[in-house]
Amino acid sequence: MKRLLDLSLRHKIPLWGSGLIVAATLAVSVGLMARAFADLKGDVIISSQGLGRTLAKTLFPVLLHDDLWRAIELVEAPLHGSTHADPLQAEAIFVVDPKMRVLVSSTPRTMPLLAELDSFDPDDRQLAAALRDADTSVSHAFEFGHSDYLHVTTPVAEEGSLIGTLVITHSKHVFLPRFFGIALGGAGMGALVLAILLPLNWYWGRHMAQPLVQLSRGMDEMVRGVPSEINPDLYGHNDELGQLFDAYREASAEIRQKAALEREVLQSERLAAVGRLAAGIAHEVNNPLAGMLMALDNLKRRSAGDPPLDPLLERTLAFLERGLQHVSETVGALLLEARVQLRPLTPHDFEDLRTLLEPQLANKSLRFDWAVRVPDSIAVAASLVRQILINLLLNAVQATPAGGGVRLAANMRDDTLSLQVSNDGEPPPAHILAHIFEPFVSGREGGHGLGLWVAYQTVQQLGGHIAIDSADGRVVFRVRLPVVETP
Amino acid sequence: MAALAVGMPGTGRALTHAPAQVLRVGLTPAFVHDQHSLMADWRNYLESRLQTPVEFVQRNSYRETMDLLHQERLDFAWLCDYPFLYLKDLVRLLAIPLNHGRPYYRSYLIVGSGDSKSKSMADLKGAVFAYADPYSNTGYLAPRYRLREMGHDPASFFRKTFFTWSHRKLIEAVAKGYADGGAVDSFVFESLEKVKPDIVRRTRIVERSVEYGFPPFAAHRSVSATDFLRMQKALLGMSGDPAGRTLLERLNIDGFIVGDRRMYDGVEMMMRAFGEH
Question: pLDDT tens, A64-94?
């Protein structure tokens, strides 16, 4: 029982509903059947009493004149042409005199003439006893215990002179099939009702339980961490359940928002730390590096004349210079020194980007979609914006498969410059995506992983915001930069 | 009753010798008389042979037909031999049907087919017994005579007796068990066996009596000699043409002969034994 009560509502509501429907249908059916049986028996008795009165009236003179054959024909006639389906059909008709001797009988073999009623089966003995005690001047219906027979008696009498009692015996076996016919019809109706109500109940039960189950799952998730969203179509009504849903949706949306915010803060803190670390290292490396490069330059200049340097030394020097140059470039990229020139951004800067990019686009046969709508002059450091865009566009060109497309969109709304760089192609895998703006993180073979870091750091420097987004085979970088008019 | 009947002739058409307008024929349960299409065909046949309308008057007991004869409302009648002798002053023998080629029949003592114990009349003591008609020879006179021969009183030998008013119904009464036994006309028994074998098969013949003269066709004494001869000729001639033979076959008889009253001496003897002649 406990297990039954602990079942999910998804099963419990339809099960309990079905149980109630079946119980109600059964109760109504049994009640109707009992009523039908009582009615049928009542009909048999009424019909039998009618037949009894007519027969008794006709039999009286016939028995008085001892015309036995005529009496036999009379009691036999109602049994002729009997179909077993007729529940009103009598099984036997006979007349007994006041001493319970058989005067005439439709079943002479089991009930011979002049034999005493007590000498037959127990049912007849009970009938004889009942008739001796009963008032024989009126009609009766007798039924003894669980006997299969129903006896309807009518006095054969006129003006107080009683010849005997006419007994019409009905076998319940005859009217049972009729009753079963009615019962079967009732059962059919019951089955039809069940066939309609049970699926309805099942559907309704599931419909009620499904939202509750989802809600319960959601609450469970809420306890453990971040709840998932619930399909708002699951329950669209504005009743208590609907209100519960609304409350859940509001609460879960808040929790999700908070979690997203926390994630973002965490990420930008990490990026800031990484940036500081990188800048620190770069600074420390940069000073000795500048010294080394200057020393190399001096050495090269001084040994330009005679005698020429040992070729091996010359190659070694060249090698060292290229290596140090590489280190210097890398460190320079990490350092991001604020060499801010306050030239405002103009549409020409965008045109320049296009010119710069064209050879690379042509190399990979990429489409370039251009949607730049900006005013003539925007009060934001042009060189930094160019830096951001060149990094993002180069990244996009490299990420796009051959024959794909790259898009640049830029527009100005209120005090914000919005930039969008998107490209065809699958988004980077999740483990890279989580660290995409960190230095030395690259999804590609051969990439040094500094381009996006530079873009990120530059956006931060400008007090803006950058995010990566992907859907339908496109990857989009969105940048928002505040534009502040300097007085 | 006989004395009264003797005084009656002369009031009818006997005085005139002109052919009757309608010939009225009484039919009794002496044969299987409730086959209505057969009766209609036979009447049509007789009408075409006699060139006179024929009316069949069916009654369900001998008594009623005897009353009609007394009242001169019948010209001819197919009677049992017992009423024929009873009315001997009122009627004349017209023709006797042939049963199995001979003008005789018997009384059969029958019991239900379920009764395998009874071997003779003696075994039916205390039984419920069915008689056909108080004016039937084979169905009443003969079995009572048999009881008397055996030294029993017919009035007390059986527990209960009743009349079924026809041989056919008597066979039904025994077949269905309403009576333990009954006495029946052998001709009706055999005729019914052809028409309703299912009923007859539910009975069993226990005793066959001696032969008695077959139930005759009789003519009222008031019938003119012309009509008497015309009807006699029509009946005797039935075996001479195909339509007549077909009807005879359906009636289960072989034809008619003129016959002789002495054929009924045996019946007359039994009647005298009961003081009825």
Answer: 988 999 999 999 888 876 555 566 788 899 9
Sequence length of chain B is 277
Every domain of chain A with CATH number 3.30.450.20 lies at: 2-179
How far apart CA A350 and CA A362 sit, in angstroms, is: 18
Q: Measure the CA–CA gap between A353 and A302, rounded to whole angstroms.
A: 41
Element (H, E) at B270: helix B265-273
CB A436 within 8 A of CB A388: no
Q: Strand pairing partners for A421? A: A408, A477
Structure tokens that stand for A291 in this block? 């010294």
- From the list B159, B162, B177, the residue facing A69 with the nearest CB is B162
- Establish whether the linkage from the previous residue to A307 is cis, with ω within 30° of 0: yes
Distance from CA of A114 to the nearest CA of B (A): 8
Number of Cβ pairs < 8 A linking chain A and chain B: 30
| Nearest chain B alpha carbon to A112 | B178
Point out the residue among B114, B128, B164 whose CB comes nearest to the CB of A112.
B128
ipTM of predicted assembly, 2 dp: 0.80
CATH number of A339-482: 3.30.565.10
CATH code, residues B2-102+213-273: 3.40.190.10
Enumerate residue ranges in chain B where pLDDT < 50.
1-16
Question: Residues spanned by CATH 3.40.190.10 within chain B?
Answer: 2-102+213-273, 107-209
Q: Contact at 8 Å (CB) between A9 and A209?
A: yes
Q: B107-209: what CATH class?
A: alpha beta
Min Cα separation A69/chain B (Å): 5
CATH topology classification for A225-231+239-335: Helix Hairpins (1.10.287)
Q: How far is CA A314 from CA A143, A290, A297, A300, A325, in A?
A: 135, 20, 12, 9, 16
CA distance B123 to A158: 39
pLDDT reported for residue B224: 93
Residues in contact with A372: Cβ distance below 8 Å, sequence separation at least 6, in sequence order: A347, A350, A408, A409, A410, A411
Substitution target from A66, A113, A116 for chain B, most B beta carbons within 10 A: A113
Q: What integer pLDDT is reported at residue A74 of this predicted model?
A: 92
On the CB side of B170, CA atoms within 13 Å amount to 38
Rounded Cα–Cα distance for residues A283 and A290 (Å): 11
Residue pair B191/B54 in contact (Cβ under 8 Å)? The answer is no
Residues for chain A: how many in total? 487
* CB A175 within 8 Å of CB A68: no
Contacts by residues A233-239 (CB-CB < 8 Å, ≥ 24 positions apart): A234/A210, A235/A210, A235/A211
Q: What is the DSSP letter of A116?
A: B
In the 8-state DSSP scheme, what is residue A275? H
**Low-confidence residues of chain A, pLDDT below 50?**
338, 487
Amino acid type, B251: L
Cα–Cα distance, A45 to A139 (Å, whole number): 10
Which CATH topology does A2-179 take? Answer: Beta-Lactamase (3.30.450)
